[in-house]
Structures are given as structure tokens and as C-alpha cells.
Amino acid sequence: MQDNATIIEPSMLDIEKIRRDFPILERTVYGYPLVYLDNAATTQKPEQVLKAMDDYYHTINSNVHRGVHYLSQQATEAYEAARHTVADFINAAHTHEIIFTRGTSEAINLVAACFGKTELRPGDSILVSAVEHHSNIVPWQLIGEEKGATLKVIPVDENGDLIIDELDHLLKGVKIVAVNYVSNSLGGINPIREIIAAAHRHGIPVLVDAAQAVQHLTVDVQELDADFLAFSSHKIYGPTGFGILYGKESWLNKLPPYQGGGEMIKTVTFEKTTYNDLPYKFEAGTPDMAGAIGLAAAIGYVQELGISNIQQAEHSLMTYALDAMREIPNLRFVGAADATHRAGVISFLVGDIHPFDMGEILDKQGIAVRTGHHCAQPVMDRYCIPGTVRASLAIYNNRTDIDRLTAGIRKAVKLLA
Amino acid sequence: MQDNATIIEPSMLDIEKIRRDFPILERTVYGYPLVYLDNAATTQKPEQVLKAMDDYYHTINSNVHRGVHYLSQQATEAYEAARHTVADFINAAHTHEIIFTRGTSEAINLVAACFGKTELRPGDSILVSAVEHHSNIVPWQLIGEEKGATLKVIPVDENGDLIIDELDHLLKGVKIVAVNYVSNSLGGINPIREIIAAAHRHGIPVLVDAAQAVQHLTVDVQELDADFLAFSSHKIYGPTGFGILYGKESWLNKLPPYQGGGEMIKTVTFEKTTYNDLPYKFEAGTPDMAGAIGLAAAIGYVQELGISNIQQAEHSLMTYALDAMREIPNLRFVGAADATHRAGVISFLVGDIHPFDMGEILDKQGIAVRTGHHCAQPVMDRYCIPGTVRASLAIYNNRTDIDRLTAGIRKAVKLLA
Amino acid sequence: MTIKEQQDEIIADFDFLGNWDDKYEYIIQLGKELPLIDAQYKKDENLIKGCQSRVWLHVDYREGKLFFTAESDAVITKGLISLLIKVLSDHTPKEITDAQITFIDTIGLSSHLSPTRSNGLLSMVKQIKMYAVAYQSKSLQS
Amino acid sequence: MTIKEQQDEIIADFDFLGNWDDKYEYIIQLGKELPLIDAQYKKDENLIKGCQSRVWLHVDYREGKLFFTAESDAVITKGLISLLIKVLSDHTPKEITDAQITFIDTIGLSSHLSPTRSNGLLSMVKQIKMYAVAYQSKSLQS
Ligand SMILES: Cc1ncc(COP(=O)(O)O)c(C=O)c1O
Ligand SMILES: Cc1ncc(COP(=O)(O)O)c(C=O)c1O
């Protein structure tokens, strides 16, 4: 395999050192050392993240914002510092453009519900792409149904590339565009700069689903000129149950509030309630303090490694993996076949082996991949397949993982074919 | 103080042993050992809870439900076992009646939005009480505004007791009742059995906000015959960012879905989406696995101590505290003055000392209390006060905490009066 | 053979197979052999809800006994189905409702019966039991 | 005295006060003394947003200088306001916009300026600065 491999630059990162930050990688499954290649579903968490949350609970745990006392002030400072870390990470113009949510799904639901409430009329449409995750389809269907608006779809070609030649035409009657940066089912990096530019030419705002992007690529909301952008903590080495909505100040001020509760209001009487300023207007109820602090630690971890170093290391491993997998007879990639247009995800099938069978035999060898439609049924329908096997990478994966994967696939083929 | 105190039965629990489960209680603030009496805002977490989450992250962290692989199955089992623990704790008839949310606020918003969507018409009303937290007012205002429905209010008397004589009359035109079990601003235990019975006589469903109840009292949803019930993990020794909505199966099946995303759907095409069964229909997006496991550990902790033992110990400490505070000149309680009608919370004022000043001087002595309107402005308006000082108890509080509090108040009075 | 005896036989067969590869090879072999369900029965009404692999199940009732044919698009599932049918087919409704399915656990494939896996096998067991209950009450009435 | 000298004097005064009780006693004393704002100015337009305690601020512009009177319902806040006014009142808009308010930090009450506390003092400093900027541009125009 090595001989005809694409030339791979040496990584700036010491992957073996990184692996030691993730003790779960040392565990075994069915007697085999774990090979964790289900990172697009959720990543593992480094000790630094777990320690930050533990420290929070051991030293300053307290409800934020409304407290005069010392712990509450410490907690509030740590919590707001986390917001600052996130703003800095995606280069938001203002810290108050960062809204804390439960995850990407909630962030998209928030925008769909609030945008829909004031901006959608019967006959309007919402433009998504053919490679979206359900979380970027169903919220728009729900609000569309309520408001009489319908979905339009940017089509995808055989290679998994979005077809954007007709975009200007497609954008007619569209009130908002919602597309992912990187597809979770195929791994393709979508041309969101072109999509945003086209939408803005027509004065249409764009929501970017960056759930599969922020952990692999540099994401700069100002450079992209994204109007909204969402991602999940648990997919970027942070804790579960937490996520981010970025929104341009002007849009966030314009939208009505989402949920009601403490902190999102200024004054409450039974007759009338006035809402708080950004970002609190969109944060009802006691926030997930530990979640915010955990995500900030995860981002700190990523920043310390350097996102471009991560990108380079993952690209190198991706190239290695694609080259090795190409050698397996009857293996076909679903989506782009080269590493350059891809981030994190390799979706594939071998002959007519059912992905579920492949996944089970890999699992028996201690290799965790995901099988099925990856919450992107329309993508599977597009390719007329029941699903794929998906191996997805994170910064702690090494060539041993890939070698184990390819050997595992070969073994599965021997058993199943 | 001891001499004329109400007779206090010895507690079944060893509070000093319990305190050792909460290492944060050993820290100092401004050189004084911390006295944490802000438990109604959020409780501290025992090591058992932190360890359960750490173990999860160290051994089985993985995305749930959609995975064939070993870790994903282990994670799914732990996650669903947590749901079972919660169902058991509040005696739900079915495990799928437990919906995981971000907290009480989100749970109430979910019901308000979904119930409102199909059940509220212009001219309808929603009945809340005069002692609600903003989180049980604003969601109803938001949906009420959208649907043309208005709020009606169960009034409260001088002692903080709800006036329910006129309930049958008040219930005219009401589509849903939303009341808290225990008020977070006054600590009064509300007559929710009577309220539920009255509402059901008129065929009206009732949502119980149990955010300040589950950690202090036995809550049995079947015995109460509550239609919906909400509480937050972080107030019952569990992690932040997690909470519970209980709903009767029949109601949950009847309501439309809330948010869209992965797992809450069965099939998705761009034209049509069919929803999943309970509880998944209401859980969009990757859930907070660690949160669920943390809450289950917290409930396990509470169950091990025994909720009735907790109730007895807290009642005894409450009696001790009220007796001691009654000795302080010019101190007046806001809400019921006796321990029997109260859980967890003591709201008070001294002379015309501003609560904010009192809170600051207590803080300087290492005593954490909350001051202000406690997200219950209408309650403060009712009593024509800007706010109160609120000391709130948890199972790890001891008499030393109360002695420090009363000494702290006396010192503050000396400085401020 | 009774359902219990059938299961014991399968368990004994598997005992001969040493490691997991051999067990899977055997199941996969069975999956490849399973007589395909009659084409007319591979229709949506016979499709059993299952997220990862699809399973079709058809039932015949003859002379007081139930006979099953089935199909799945995943071969391991299909192999397990073939064992399941061997165990449960050609029995009376009462025998089927009373039966405890233990062999899947014992041969180490319990994860296929995990409610969290949603792969169709558990749903299939439930479906078979439901048919049995239905036919049992029917036969009691008649 | 310049704003800097005023602050130094306050800091020196506080240096004499040993522990926190003495400092608070002094601030509370000041809070009790602060000449109440003229009743006509204690109105909603002069109310500064602050969650925990309310603060009213009134400004007068005379002979190129700004004069402030203020009030709060919390006595510690009131005491700090009284210090703040002592420092900033009777100065030109330019002096005020240029000023660095350091004394609150130095005397150990920085938490009152924490943006997370929302108690009105920080909002008050901001409001005073805004008045100063407004009058400065006004005086430049005229
Ligand atoms: C009675 C009551 N209801 C609702 C809430 C809101 O809970 P959360 O902020 O955890 O959503 C609280 C606490 O803040 C409360 O005390
Ligand atoms: C592209 C994409 N969008 C949205 C989501 C939903 O994220 P979450 O489940 O964390 O809300 C995911 C992952 O599940 C995803 O991969």
C-alpha cells in the first residue's frame, strides 16, 4: 500500500502523545484494543475537558448571573469567559452573538422557529441541500408546515458534490438558506462561500450547519459572512448536551425570543414581559454552566494543537486511509473519493454486503464504525442504497487504526461475501 | 436559642458523613469556611454523581441509539437505564412518559408550545398561580400572545398561601393549569392535590412545576394524577443542563412534536416526515448522555438516603433555623412562618435593610444566600418589596451553617441598620 | 422436537464452534441458505419495523400449527432468523406463546435482541409471539 | 483636585481601615450621608438599569463642568456612588472621558464593577461617561 500512496507530509502533531489524553482509547472491546472510528457521531473527550468540568463542580459550582455571592460571581465569570472563547474561536464580531444551546439541533430549531414566526409567509420557500442531516431538514419542515412554506433542495451529483450552477434560479422565492459546511453522511466539504455569496446577492440570509466542520477546518464567521452558524460541543471533544448558535447581531436583535424563562427577561408582570438583551434573550432557564466550561476547555485543547495542524494531520491520515481502502476489491466510496474535498468522514460499501453486516463483523474485531443512513435518509434515497458504512476520523486516530480497519474489512469480506 | 426551640427529632441521616461526599463544602470564601445556602438556585453535586459521569466518559462514551457497535450499545443501555431510574423515582406508569430536556424551563416551554399549537384558541385562558417562577409564566405568555389566549392567576394571601376557594369559578374558560408544587421565592408547599382535583373536575389538564419539590418531598405522579410534571437535574444534586418532563402517555401522544432532528423521526424525505414513538418524538438531536447518567446517579444518591429521611432531616433543620431567626429583632419572614408548610426555602427581610446590602455583608462572611426577586417578580410586586434575602437548604446543611447564618445576619444588621 | 429441544440442539451445535469467527461463519452460511420467502409475501405489510436491516415475515396456519417463512436484507440477521424459524415453526400457537427464546443469548448474540439495537430481530420475535397469541385466541373461539 | 488626586486620597483613606468590616462601615456611613437626589430627579428617566439595586443619576452642566447627584436604594451601592461622585463631579467633560476609575478596584470592591453583577454601579459609570462624551461633543460644536 505504502508504495503507490499519495505523498504524505509528516504531521506537526505527536498523535501518540495526543492519544494519552484520551484514556478511553486504551480500553478493549471483545478482547481487541478499541479502534474508535465513529467520531462524526461523537468524539471522545480529553482529560483536560473532564478536568475542567470536575474543577468547576469542585470549586465554584453555583447558579450564574443572578447571584451576589462569591461562588456565583466566579461561576458567572467562568461561564461568560467560555462564551468569549467560543466567539474568539469562530471569530464572531461580538461575544453576545454567541448563544448557548443544547446542540446543533436545538440551534437550528431556534432559528427555524424564530425566523419562521416573523419572516415566513404562505408560498415562501426555504432552501436546503440534498446532503443535509435530518436536523437541518425537519425543523424547516415543521415551521414550513405551520407557515405554508415549502422546502427546495440544492441537488447533488454522483460524486456527492452540490450542483450550484442553477443557484440563482433556485433562490427565487427563498426566504432563508440552510446548508451544512461538511456533510455527515458523505464527508464532502460544500461550497458554502459560493452559496452564501449567491444568497446575499438576493438579500437572503444563510444558516451554516457546521456540526461536522469546526473540529476539522478553520471556521471564521466573518470571513464566511454567515448569518447564522451552529455546532455541537460533543463533536469537537466537548461534553454532551451543549452547543452553539452564532447569529449576526442584527439578525438576533430582529428575531423574536424562542423560549421563555428566567434570565431571558428584564421585567415580568402577569400583563407584560420585556425581554433581556443579547445573548440572554435566547437563553431561557438555568444554563448548562459545566457544559459551557467543558466546551471552552475543548476549544482550548483544539486551539493548543492548532486547527490547521489538525487539518493537516487528518488530511494525511485520510489520504492514507483512502489509498489503503482503494486496494480492497469491490470497495466503493459513497461521495468524493479524494481527501481534498473531504473532512473526517469516509462512507463506503463493499460489493453487495449489507452495511449492517459489515458493521457487526467490524464491531466483533473491536472496530467502532457507524452503519445506516446516518440521519440523512434523503442522501441514501438519492444513491438508492439502504445506507453506508461510515468510518470517521478524529485527531487521535493513527495509522494503526486505519490498518486495523482495512484488515477488519478484509476479514468481514471473507466471512460475508 | 436552643432552650426555647421546637422539639427536634434526631435525624436518621449522618449529615457529617453526607457532607464528605461534597468536597466543595470544604472550601473557604474570603478566609471563612463556605456556608452554602443557595440551594434553591442550584445544589452542589456529590462525588458519586461526578464519578458516574467521569466513568461514562472514560469507558463507554458514544452516540446512542443509532449505533451497532459495542460502545454505542453500552451507552444506549446506560442512557435508557437512566430514563428508567427517573420513571421509578416519580412513579411514572411508563418509562416512555419520561422526556429528557435541558431543564425545567425547557420542559415547560415544550408543553406550552406543543399544547398551545393544537389546543389553544383566541379567548382561552391559562391558569397559573401568583407565586410562579418566571419559567412558568413567560412560556405561557409567549404562546398566549401567539394564540390570543390570556393568563389568569390564582391569588395568594399575606402568608404566601394560595387562595383556592374560588378555584371552580377561576377555571372557567381555562384550557390548562400550570402551578408549582413548592414556590422558589417563598418556599411554600402549594395545595396541588386540590388544584389538580378541581381542574380534573372540569376536564382541564395540569402541569406541575416540581423544580423545588423533587429534592425535598416524595413526588408520585400517579398519586398526584399530574398530567405533566417538570424538574431540573441541577437542583437535585445532578449535573447542569439537564432536566425532565413527565407527561401522561395519552397527552404526549396527542401533542405535536416540538423540535425536529435526528432520532425524533422515523423516516424523512424532503416531502414528508413521520415521527418516532415516545419518548423519542420529543427528543431531537444527540441527547445529553452524560447528563442523563449524572441525573440517574443523583437520584440514586437521594434514594439511598431515602427521600423521607431527607424530608425529616430538612424539616428538623428548617425548624431550628426558623426558631433561631425569629430571635433576630426586626427580622420578618416573607411567606409562611412555620416549617410544616415549607420546603427548603426561607425568604426574609430585616427592618428596611435592602436585601442586596444584606447579601453582600453575608457574602463577605463566606455565607452564600441569594437576594433579589428570585425570578418571581410578580411575587415581589404582590408584597410591594424589591426582593428578599433567601436562604435555602439542602441535605448537606447542618446547624453550624444556620448558626453562621444567624450570626452573619446579626453582624450585617449592626453594620447596616 | 419441542421448542426446548430445538434450542438445545442449536446450543450444542454452537458449542462445537470455538471462536466468534466460526460462529458467525455458521450463521452467515445459514443466512445464505434460508429459502427465500415467496416473492408474493415480500411486501410492505409483511415488513417488520427495524432501523438497520429490513425483515419480512410471513405466517401460514395449517392443521393447528404455525409455519413461518422470512427474509432479511442483512445476512447475519437472516441467519439468526433461520435459526429462529427452525425453533418456532411447525408448532402450535400455545407452544409458541409459552416458549422462552434463550438460545440467541446462549450462543452469544444477545446484542441482536437488545431493544436499543432496533435491527428487527427483536421486533420479529415480538411479531411471531403476537401471531401466536392471535391464532391461539382464534382456535379457542372456534 | 484632579480626578487622579481624588482617587489617591480615597485610596489613602481606605489604607487606614484595616479589615473589611471597617471598610464597609465607612462606605455604609457614606451611603447614609449622601445628600438625597432632588425629589424631582428621582424619576424613571433617571433610573439606571441594574438588576439588584436601583440607581438614579441626575446631571447638571454649569460653566463647562458636569455636576452629578445620585441615589440608590441599597446603602452600600449608595456609599460607592458617593465616592464616585466625589471623584467625578465638578470636572470638565474631557477630564471625565479621559479618567480611569481605579479606586474601586484598589479598595477591594471590584466585584461591584463586575459586569456579571448587574448591580447598577458599572452601569452608572458607563452612564456618567456617556454624559461626558455627549457634553464634550456639544461643547466642541458650540
Ligand atoms: C419553581 C421553579 N420553576 C422553574 C425553575 C426553572 O428551572 P431551570 O432554570 O433549571 O430551567 C426554577 C429554578 O430556577 C424554579 O425554582
Ligand atoms: C451535519 C450535522 N448536522 C446536525 C447534526 C445534529 O447535531 P446534534 O445531534 O448534536 O444536535 C449532526 C450530528 O448528529 C450533523 O452531523
UniProtKB/TrEMBL annotation, chains C, D:
Any Pfam family matching the protein: SufE
Domain Fe-S metabolism associated: 12-130
Entries under SUPFAM superfamilies matching the protein: SufE/NifU
Top-level taxon: Bacteria
Annotated coiled-coil segments of the chain: none
Family: Belongs to the SufE family.
Name of this chain's protein: Fe-S metabolism protein SufE
Organism per entry: Puia dinghuensis
Source organism phylogeny: Bacteria, Pseudomonadati, Bacteroidota, Chitinophagia, Chitinophagales
